[in-house]
Amino acid sequence: MMGGACSRKRDQQVNEDSGNRGIYGRYCKSGSSKWLGNSISRLAVDNKQGKTKCPSLMELCIYKIREDIDKYSSFSMLPRDISQQIFNELVYSQCLTEVSLGAFRDCALQDLDLGEYPGLEDSWMDVISSQELSLLSVDLSGSDVTDSGLIHLKNCTNLQAMNFNYSDQISDHGLEHISGLSNLATLSFRRNNQITAQGLSVLSGLVNLLKLDLERCPGIHGGLVHLKGLTKLESLNIKCCNCITDADMKPLSGLTNLKELQISSSKVSDYGVTFLKGLHKLSLLNMEGCPVTAACLDCLAVEMCGVDLISSLFCPALPALLYLNLSRCNLSDDGCEKISGNTLIAQSNLLSVMCSVGLRKLKVLNLGFNDITDAYLVHLRGLQRLRCLELSDTEVGSNGLRHLAGLTSLVSINLSFTVVTDSGLKKLSGLASLTSLNLDARQITDAGLASLTSLTGLMHLDLFGARITDSGTNYLKNFKNLRSLEICGGGLTDAGVKNIKDLSSLTVLNLSQNNNLTDKTLELISGLTQLVSLNVSNSRITTAGLQHLRSLKNLKSLNLDSCKVTAYDIEKLQSTDLPNLVSFRPE
Amino acid sequence: MKKEDTVKLISADGFEFVIDKKAAMVSQTIRNMLTSPGSFAETQHGEVTFPEISTTILEKICQYFYWSLQYARSISVGSGKETEFHIEPELTLELMMAANYLHT
């Protein structure tokens, strides 16, 4: 067959995080469903590229089949790569039904990405399993498929990836049916209340697993012992299970191929972390919200080879660590405490050296929402490769920032809700690589902004609650690369917006809460044609001002809540001039 | 029309379609055949035979080539006069297999 001659690459693996959601996350703070996300992005693509690119004959044929889908009873005579494309289109456009699925019986399809597909239930499983040995990945997330539905998959022994996240009706019994699928490399069943430690025993046979996702499974405490033999495992997610304790960490100590470990919001303490010390390939460790203390950082940095501290400096416990999330833990300024029998009373500066040697590759560090102060930042001084640092909601103040002055690799710093003041910001002025800075704190004013004018590479500047006035906006002119800007402290008038109107790279602009802004503001920003998201809520904007938005063809999100504007006015503008607008308020 | 500006596409049942080279190049597969530096017979004679594509389907494909050029032209001048390409339901599957082969 002709189609078989040039079989296309499998480019669509089961994907537990919808890419679209990620993109839209930046612009829409309210979560949208996967399907809404899909239809939105497609619309945008149709508008953006569809106009310039001619649809291929292949695409035209597939759309035609979608239109006439009732006329087809079987696609099994088609080469696999073609029937796969038809299937994907039907799923994408949500035209697949139980009846039309029947046409795909015995089509040797490889990927059935049916995550969150409406109506999917056990009666669909017969056709799904008819793909038999061809089936490589299946996503049944959010479906009504039950334990008995999974029986069908027994014969699909080539399955490499399987997702049934948010599938409330699958329990330990269902898991038994997949015990023979030893080619599985990816397995994910997030948010499942029924699966218990006993159910996890089937995992011990899945020796090829690389990626296992058990996020939000509250019944699995004690079950991780079954992972002991899964030495190929590279990624394990047991976030938010509410039942994971120090004891559950012990079986992980031998999984030396682990690169990513997510144990956030569990009960793991410093003692549990000691079991992770041999994970030499670990590059991502997320312990957000775990009751660990500063001692754990010390433990992660250095493997306790003996009593001789100096020699132990040279055997970092987690030499590959790049991402460390210790947000919302029990960190404080106290140095070391008792760690598994080794009593250490470390001097501050010694701890600092240990951190810099042991974690020297660290790229991303999240210490937000901890009771740490300036003294703690001493430990970060040697982290020369650090790119992102989160310190929001800590007691860090201006004095501590001097310890960051030498971290010239820093690209992103979050200092929101800290006690940093204007005078401290000078110490950041040499961080020429910074592209993202969050200074959402009430005590930051125009004076602070004045000391940052050297940071000309800034792309994201968040001054949400800072008290910026019109005169402060003069300094914004230096930030020609800004993509997103938030100034919502109430101090801006139209005069200040004059200094924003030439920041032509802006895609996200939030000037909410500045209740003196008038229609003049909209006129001023009408040249910011890259804008995707605009928020001028709580201002004196009126319907008359809306005409100035006509030029903002890329606008997807518009918030004019608490203005003299109605949903009807915006809808009118949307239909005539803003085809990409998908989210607006008032609605 | 000069001979070197055209190509001859020959269907399974021997029917010949002489079309603009530019139109034929809409197909990635034909483009590769006609432009690859190797010594494809197709390159030399400006002739391509498709032993698996029927005359009906090959005619439809040639129509698509020209439709595609027209579509692109209409986009570039912004006339907004893009027409729809009609596909007969009974041809769809066979046409799709050919389109897949021709990377069109």
UniProtKB/TrEMBL annotation, chain A:
SMART domains: LRR_CC. InterPro entries: Leu-rich_rpt, Leu-rich_rpt_Cys-con_subtyp, LRR_dom_sf. Pfam families: LRR_6, LRR_8. GO terms for cellular component: SCF ubiquitin ligase complex. GO terms for biological process: SCF-dependent proteasomal ubiquitin-dependent protein catabolic process. This is F-box domain-containing protein. It comes from Camellia sinensis (Tea plant).
TrEMBL record, chain B:
GO terms for cellular component: nucleus. It is found in: Nucleus. It holds the Pfam family Skp1_POZ. The keyword Nucleus applies. Belongs to the SKP1 family. GO terms for biological process: jasmonic acid mediated signaling pathway; ubiquitin-dependent protein catabolic process. Residues 6-66 form the SKP1 component POZ domain. The keyword Metal-binding does not apply. Pathway: Protein modification; protein ubiquitination. It comes from the Eukaryota. InterPro entries: ELC1, SKP1-like, SKP1/BTB/POZ_sf, Skp1_comp_POZ. This is Elongin-C. Keywords: Nucleus. SUPFAM superfamilies: POZ domain.
